[in-house]
User: What shape does this take?
Amino acid sequence: MAIVGVSSEGGYGFANGMLLACRAMGFAGEILPVNPKGGTFAGQTIFHSLEEIPGDIDFAVIAVPAPAVPEALEACRRKGAAGAEVLTAGFGETGTPEGRVLEQQIREVAARGIRVVGPNCFGIYCPASGLTLLPGAGLSRETGPVGFLSQSGGMSIDLAHLGGWMGLRFSKVISFGNGADLREAELLRYLADDPETGVIAMYVEGVADGSDFFQAIREAALRKPVVVLKGGLSEAGGRAVVGHTASMGGSRAIWSGVLRQANATRVESLEELAQACLAFSHLPARVFRGISAVGGGGALGAAAGDAAEACGITLPAFSPDLRDRIEAILPRPGSSAANPIDVANPFVPPAVLGQVLRLAAEDTRVGLQVLISLLYHYKSQARAVGVAVADITPCTELAETVAAAAADTGKPVVMVLPDLMRGPEDLDLAGMMAGAREEFTGRGVPVFGAIGEALRAIGHVSAYYERRLPREES
Assistant: This one.
């Protein structure tokens, strides 16, 4: 991989930053810095030109001033590169004739035989190879099923970081910016065909060809879940995306209709995008109409019931016999087994919670279970006995118990771990909660921070498969 624009003077320009980021990620290939001035950077000799590099190159990162980009791209093409990402801004998004001419020149070079991501982008994150987005030195090398296409570089790195601690793992993240060559429709088709991608996420500001995009997203959604966050639907947002990637925002009603017809899942925020991808990644391809909810506190149960109803999900009341068998193992007083199940306090042993989940799974109307665990309450116990909260909280045991119950019953369990203590004095609690999340997601159990977020994500999964599965069976 050639990186064109690396400076021996150091600093954190785009090209220098990309070299350092890929080295920190352990990029699997050879990194070849290029700058006409030559010199060295980070212990590497800088080639004066691409022609000076022995043999061909496979790929290039271009981070030179905008007027120099077309010439650099053409040199990469002549050097055998199959593709390049252009990090530089200053093209069509500027709205100037000069910017538009430069972007057209990129298209002309691409048409001669090199594929281009960008310009005005953060590039590609591929954990398998260690190629990373521009500021992505700290991203995971662990691969996963989520592919993300983003017109915004900031959104691409934000989801990569957000997904990192939530338990999302990525196949590829592609920030394509202005999309002078490769754009949303062609990239959608690529991810639809990619065996490493099971869920496709998108942040879109505008499309080049509405008909082609609709066909691509409809075909992709027939094969895999496609989750879309559309930017620029408000008047102010529309003005922002024009100046960001030279895209037109479009009408909310039209976009909603297009995505609904394509059976794509539309979300309203980056957080909802990540939560939907988490659910699609971990839950089976199934429609969940009935669930059980287990937690400590009547108000939590009421909130679960209200949120479920809003998502088209029911909490069926258990039969008297099943209710009696569950109540027999619950602590007293204050517990209830009507569904939602109130276990009365946050310190119920994991073994008991596992029994509750197994019993509740006997109801044939229950397809999925939600367990709300108030682990942050262990902070008070830790203080009382003078130990670290991580040492007293049974995260591993609970995660093992929940994962075993899900596997044995065939009914997935979704965890809700509220985290309401976030003051400076609670940094130890934040560490414990992060560790707990890893324990669960590492065993295939998705974790959400609030019951409403969990049920909304479950609702997205159910709605997608309810529309798709009849088509597959017909």
User: Anything to note?
Assistant: The chain has a mean pLDDT of 92. The chain has three domains: 1-119, 121-282, 284-473. The chain is about 45% helix and 15% strand.
